[in-house]
Amino acid sequence: MDRVKTSFSIKNLEHLSGIKAHTIRIWEKRYNLFQPERTNTNIRMYNLDSLQKLLNVSMLYKNGFKISKIAQMEVKEIRDKVHNITLQKSPYDWSLGLFKLSMINFDQRLFTKTFDELMGKMSFSEIFQSIFTPLMIELGVLWQTNSISPSHEHFITSLIKQKIHSLSEKLQESSPLNTEKTFVLYLPDNEIHELGLLFLNYEVLNKGYKSIFLGQSIPTASLSNLQDKSKHMIYVSCFTIEPNQDRIQAYLSDFEKEILSSDGAELWISGYQVQHIPKPKNKKIRIFHSAADLIKEL
Questions:
Q1: Full-model pTM
Q2: Closest to 91 in 3D by CA, of 154, 135, 56, 148
Q3: Is 286 helix (H, G, I), strand (E, B) or coil?
Q4: Highest CATH level, class, for 175-296
Q5: Are 151 and 180 in contact (CB under 8 A)?
Q6: Which residue from 89, 240, 242, 285 could staple onto 93, CB 3.0 to 4.6 Å apart?
Q7: Pairing relation of β-strands 233-238 and 209-215?
Q8: What are the extents of the domains in the chain?
Q9: C-alpha angle 92-97-100 in degrees, rounded to nearest 5
Q10: Which CATH architecture is the domain 1-89 placed in?
Q11: How far apart are CA 101 and CA 98, in angstroms?
């Protein structure tokens, strides 16, 4: 069973803040910045307040404040100075820390406030590619090192999905401007990682095309029902986990027979597993090694 983390080891703090465990120990001993509890085996464990304080201290330290000066500040003064820094720094510099804080504290309001501030400075495409994508990569590392629980990752991912759904719905209120192509966005059987696909769907809509979003785990045979919906049907998928290296060629062979035999049908693929696909002989299959490359072709 997933248990929400409320207690963190010094290694967890290192992974979340970017401050080395050795440095944290020095700050703790020399400046009494934190008061960790000790386990029966004398291992330091830190609570959520300590983590939040460290993230704020880290931002001040990385922006030129001496740790001896930071140690003399009250918690509110530290927060105020962090806020002033965020007003001057680029969105990338301050937003990642705030999104991590919102995740650790399950704070939807902080997520929304941070997102709204970003939307005042950047397009959603820029936010997703320059901030959300690096954030999700970092969360993968944090999850693997047990610095966060699955609940944290699911929380922040769900909030990002909500924003994509909301923005996509607004785009769908208008009729498509480009009617020569229809994009079908789907994930193959047993593939459930749909965040990237949701973003591609947003980009398709943002370019004025019609999209048919099918989502997770769609059998190839089910796609044949769509072949009469457009003369030029482009199927778009992200192969993150499935089909894996052992099955990917068989999958593409079946797709060619069942779907690409129709005139005007194409398959565009991105995702981790495309590294296992040699250059396709069939020109109707296009491989993209990044979402950004695929978006350029829209």
A1: 0.81
A2: 135
A3: strand
A4: alpha beta
A5: no
A6: 89
A7: unpaired
A8: 1-89, 99-173, 175-296
A9: 125
A10: Orthogonal Bundle (1.10)
A11: 5
Give the single-character DSSP code of 297.
T
Q: What is the pLDDT along the chain (298 residues), one digit of tens a residue?
A: 345 567 888 998 988 888 999 999 999 999 998 888 888 888 889 988 888 888 889 889 988 999 999 999 998 899 888 878 776 777 777 788 889 889 988 999 999 999 999 999 999 999 999 999 999 888 887 877 778 888 898 999 999 999 999 999 999 998 888 888 999 999 999 998 999 999 999 999 999 999 999 999 999 999 988 877 888 999 999 999 999 999 999 999 999 999 998 888 999 999 999 999 988 889 999 999 999 999 999 9
Cα distance between residue 202 and residue 292, in whole Å: 13
Strands (DSSP E) found in the chain: 7-8, 37-38, 44-47, 178-186, 209-215, 233-238, 265-270, 285-287
Report in angstroms the alpha-carbon separations of 298 from 80, 174, 179, 185: 44, 18, 13, 13
The first and second tokens of residue 52, run together, are: 């939040």
